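A favour between colleagues. Tell me how you read the following sequence-structure pair.

===
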Amino acid sequence: MLRERHHIFLGLFVASDAIIVTAATWGAWWLRFRLLEGFKPYGELVDSTMIPFWAAGPVLLAVAGIMRLYKPRRDEHFLREFKAILRTVVVGAISLVTVLTLFRNELTQGVVLNNLQFVLWAVLVVIGMTLNHYLIRRILRWARSRGLNIRPVAIIGTGPTGQQICRTLRSNSWTGIHPSFFISHVEDDPPEALEGLPVRGGLETLESVLKSESPSGVFIALPNSMAARIEELMTILGNYPVDVRVVPDLTFRFIMNMKTTALDGVPILSVRESPLNGWGGILKRTVDIFGSLLAIILLAIPMLVAAILVRCSGPGPIFFRQRRHTANGREFSILKFRTMRELTPDQARIEETSDRWQRGDKDRVTGIGRLLRRTSLDELPQLFNVLRGEMSLVGPRPLAAGEVADARDSWHGFMLRQNVRSGITGWAQVHGLRGEANNRVRMLYDIHYIRNWSVWFDFWIILLTVRRIFSDSSAE
């Protein structure tokens, strides 16, 4: 019954996407040759032939099937589905152009279609499919939270891991995955009930339980001492139409961020890995270079005015420099506009080697310095740190050597924070955790950012930063 429902929902997604792709062909044609009719970069060579919708729909849906866009996604965040939609449309658009080029004479009577029309079509399809999938997913979540479209599952293992899986599934009822009963891994005197659910026998009676209860899925949550029995269980489960998931017997803070990869066919569980390795790091660095260059160009006049005002505020350098740590423990000299009166040589030496991040004695803040801090303009010289590769536009705040040493020894997992470049702004800063805010709380936000990093997350933080610039009281 549940699998029949899955086919119904699959048909709903495919049919609605087909309508959207068809509508996008009309929309792209109307935008290009009605709304943008006067836009003719190639003179009169622009053709007004529409992309054939009877070719666009089948090609894109075929690509969607190949790229498994319509696989079940009950327990996935919608962001992953959006990425799948984006990949599908990009590959689909390239495939469509290729098909219409190779079969130009048969499909478009030898006419070469307008390139801009394909771009508009792809944009409309991405927007339409994203809204469509999001709306359907929200409706399904709403239904599942009210007991509809539920998939009952069994949990094999009554230890801490099995109990945690049960609690996690219950607290995320939107997935529609409902724990129905346990199967005990304890042979002698298994409990009758656990977490409010019945315990239906042990491993020796697994087959009879599967026949009588007919769950749609199984979670294997055995302790490490019984890991050798997982292969035996997989053999038994292979004879039944159930989805099988294996939960490693690890602390849940590790499981939450675990990734599975394969090396020459050997599965590898990655427990702790920076998301900025590989292409992620290249993409982030590219955004940093172009973003900092653009910001320097746009903010050149405000920076020049700020430098002149700092120079006029009293004796001392325009820039304040302090040694800080960035990715992999590398030290660099952070740049800021000076906002305080000049220190004596002895005071400067003490502050330069300070193990604490501090704004200094507020009584020494100049009038111009107070304005620069309130508007965060004192941070602008750090754009040059970003350009030099010492910092990033978005990332954890830069720490002093003493702070790194203290946190490393007292807080497990802290060093994940040191895998990425420090940032001008970050997830902690946009939540008001600046200045003398509690370091431990701030680092929790930093680690959350690293574990959930994406380019879109960076853009969102930048937008929140712009909004907070003139309202952040912690910038005082």
